[in-house]
């Protein structure tokens, strides 16, 4: 039982470390994205309806699977980036 708890704690710490680093990066990215959106709206006006009409297939997809750590199933999510394909 002790080994199982230690393995889960180790996995949890790794996941937590990854979450913290990605949250820090996300704050900076969102600040830049928000400023860019404000610039674009100032330059071009409201263009949201044009974007919605011209959307094709998703380039990012999420794949879910499970990982077995010391007999405990943990969900694992993977991001799949697909190359741009011309709309048919």
Describe this structure in words.
By secondary structure, the chain is an alpha+beta fold. The protein has one domain. Helix content is 56%, strand content 23%. It is built from two helices and two strands; from the N terminus they run H-H-E-E. Strands 1-2 form a two-stranded antiparallel ribbon. Strand 1 (60-69) and strand 2 (72-81) form a beta hairpin. The chain is elongated. The mean pLDDT is 84.
Percent of residues in helical segments?
55-70%
Strand order of the largest sheet: 1-2
Main beta sheet, described?
2 strands, antiparallel
Query: What is the residue-averaged pLDDT?
Result: 84
Number of helices: 2
The structural domain count equals 1
Secondary structure class reads: alpha+beta
Q: Helix and strand succession?
A: HHEE
What oligomeric state is this?
single chain
